[in-house]
Predict the structure.
Amino acid sequence: MISGPVKKGARTKELVRRLAKGDIALVDHADLDELAAEGLIKAGVSAVLDIQPVMTGRYPTPGPKRLMDRRITVLDSLGAAAWTIPDGTIVCLEGNVVSWPGGRLPGRLVDRLLLQSLTTAARIRLAGELDAFLANTLEYARREKDLLLANLDFSSVRTRLAGKQVLIVVRGASYRQDLAAVGPYLRESRPALIGVDGGADALLELGYRPDIIVGDLDSVSDQALKCGAEIVLHTYLDGRAPHRPRLEALGVKYREIALPGTSEDLALLLAYEKGAELMVAVGTHSNLIDFLEKGRKGMGSTFLVRSKVGDRLVDARGVSRLYQGRLRPGHLLTLLAAAMFPVMLALFSSQVGRFIIRLLALRLRTGLGWR
């Protein structure tokens, strides 16, 4: 049996900000994505309750497996009735039932056997999803190519990027780990830093202040928005920007740029058009699962943007998986030998040192009974 205070939120990425260790998260999140799972794990939740199926079978989302690997109990398909549980209420999970003072509700306990069955079915259906995804991608690419491939005017953005290397951090899978992995590059090359929405917070967490923050700004903290970076609000083509009132309430200065596609597309085009010598991207979205998890039915804009920026872009997504340095006994012995070498050299090169070595040798022979 698991018990704890329940905290609920319709948007998982906003809910994780107020979760504490031991809380039970109540979400409304079909096909729980990897990024949401990482947020829940980082918050230290003991269990996850989902009104919807954590995997519907459309595609094999990796989020539920991430939770199971951390031994976090998952109960899904609870239905809208679960949303009546008051925030902060102590609930108990026993088997596939969640109960609280005044009510109890059955759900579906997601175990490894069920997850394996759902994943197998999702992989079979993925071919059909891919057909629809490709059709949407081509349709949007035809529709948006003139807007995205033209010479765009970013003169309103003051930060100078011409001739510089630029690191663009997007809030995607493993973005924190990959950002930490490129730490040596950051220290040596000192690139200009662009945070895309929550990517700005990842930079701040590692002690770096972004030069520019780009996005619709739905997943970036107030702290990041007030850090002194230049703010570029990504709006719809008709000028709508749901989070414009938030910026005005915070009193921060910002610039608006209307562009089709995603905010990371805008960040790449901004760096490219302002003459960046090299763009290194962390956490970007570039495959079918990425875009399905974001609720997008195609990637026309991303296809066009990546075609345009060409070889100026180095995608560092997944770089943290290439090599994970581990301190092995051989490393310690090598370090010890390297440290001892100058000490022994100093001893042998001085009269006092040679006397100490002869004295130690004499004591060793005496102690071992040698003559």
Observations:
- The mean pLDDT is 85.
- The chain has 14 helices and 15 strands.
